[in-house]
Specification:
23 strands, single chain, six-stranded mixed beta sheet, 3 domains, mainly beta, about 350 residues, Immunoglobulin-like, 2 helices, globular
């Protein structure tokens, strides 16, 4: 039996360079960031390349302008001392960039910064899970919010998780903290509801609590006001991401943004210039959960015990080892070693510097 495979390279219009813009301004203190890059041909290994030396500025509906500085190639930031978004104002992004050898002028549609209400409350409910017929408890995190002034009808959220974990061995770097940011698109439209109320929005399900709920856990939820145009952009992007990968699924490059080129109105520009007011709220969880902690099961399975003055008894002497247990005061002195760094050094998966907000729940 024999067979062969012939390489097929279709002719695609996606070989052309396409501008990509990612950026948001808010009403919060600090710098705002605009990223400008361009896609590369589909057969190249890199996905995109950042654009340098672009002139980037933001104007509002009162005629004020703010010039952005290039922080690094492709990244442009506002001056935190002179610029801060104001709810009720409309903002427009302007920039120049060289595409296909020519300098083009780009501009976004004017975007209004809509006021956003605070998050009312964040809470969680326990959930039972079974792994290898063993009970384990996780939790579903919800939040409630409402706008009594009915100003914000389109919402977007993201979050950042932070949790403390402790290694089960008496090592130097035993207690650490690690963080993860959300990767899902969370949006909601209340324009068709009789009341501008969002209740029991499921923001995060923790199914594997062993790495999060063993000690102390925190989640910070950011709530953004967006306008209708941006809501539809995120809605289409979300639908695109959740497609099953069929031949006729929509592709991301067909999702229109709010940025256009002055010289060529038909030029395709990916991304969206977002203008949002922001409110945030944090939840701490310190309750005990029934957890099957199997994160460090392998730490002792291949550990090595050796007499400290006989290092030649260690197989693979050129390897890197970490100490799990130190019995140098015993007779004879000995240590238990592992080749798995995460078992003996918590900084392998996080930081041993406590976050500034960690004790805010006291």
């Amino acid at each position: 039996m024999a067979g062969c495979i012939s390489e097929y390279i279709p002719e695609l219009k996606e070989n052309e360079e396409i501008l990509v813009v990612e950026g948001m301004i808010t009403d919060q203190p600090g710098k705002n960031t605009i990223n400008i890059s361009k896609t590369l041909a589909i057969w190249t290994r890199d996905f995109r390349t950042e654009l340098e030396n672009c002139k980037v500025w933001i104007s509002d509906d009162l005629g004020n302008e703010s010039l952005l500085a290039m922080e690094k190639i492709g990244t442009y930031v506002t001056d935190s001392a002179t610029f801060r978004g104001i709810p009720g104002r409309k903002y427009t992004l302007h920039f120049t960039a060289k595409m296909n050898g020519e300098l083009h002028n780009y501009e976004s549609l004017p975007m209004e910064m809509i006021p956003v209400p605070p998050i009312d409350t964040i809470y969680f409910e326990r959930r039972d899970f079974f792994f290898l017929n063993q009970l384990s408890e996780g939790c579903q995190i919800y939040f409630d919010t409402h706008d009594p002034f009915d100003s914000c009808k389109f919402y977007r959220w993201d979050y950042k998780e932070t949790w403390e974990y402790k290694l089960p061995f008496d090592v130097t770097n035993r207690i650490c903290w690690t963080s993860e940011e959300s990767e899902v698109i969370m949006i909601k439209n209340t324009s068709l509801l009789s009341n501008n109320i969002i209740s029991r929005y499921p923001v995060k399900l923790i199914e594997n609590p062993a790495d999060r709920l063993l000690s102390k856990y925190s989640i910070l939820i950011n709530q953004y006001s967006i306008n209708e145009e941006e809501y539809h952009f995120w809605e289409k992007l979300k639908n695109s991401i959740t497609m099953t990968g069929g031949l006729y699924d929509i592709i991301p490059s067909t999702i229109p943004g709010n940025i256009y080129c002055h010289e060529d109105k038909l030029e395709k520009v990916l991304g969206f210039f977002s203008v949002s007011a922001v409110t945030s709220k944090r939840l701490f969880i310190k309750e005990k959960f029934i957890v099957r902690d199997g994160l460090y099961d392998l730490c002792l399975s291949d550990a090595i015990k050796t007499i400290t003055n006989l290092p030649d008894t260690i197989p693979g002497l050129n390897g890197v080892f970490w100490i799990l247990y130190n019995y140098t005061d015993s007779v004879p002195p000995s240590v238990i070693l592992t080749t798995r760094r995460y078992c003996a050094d918590c900084t392998a998966k996080g930081t041993n510097i406590k976050p500034a907000f960690w004790d805010d729940d006291k």
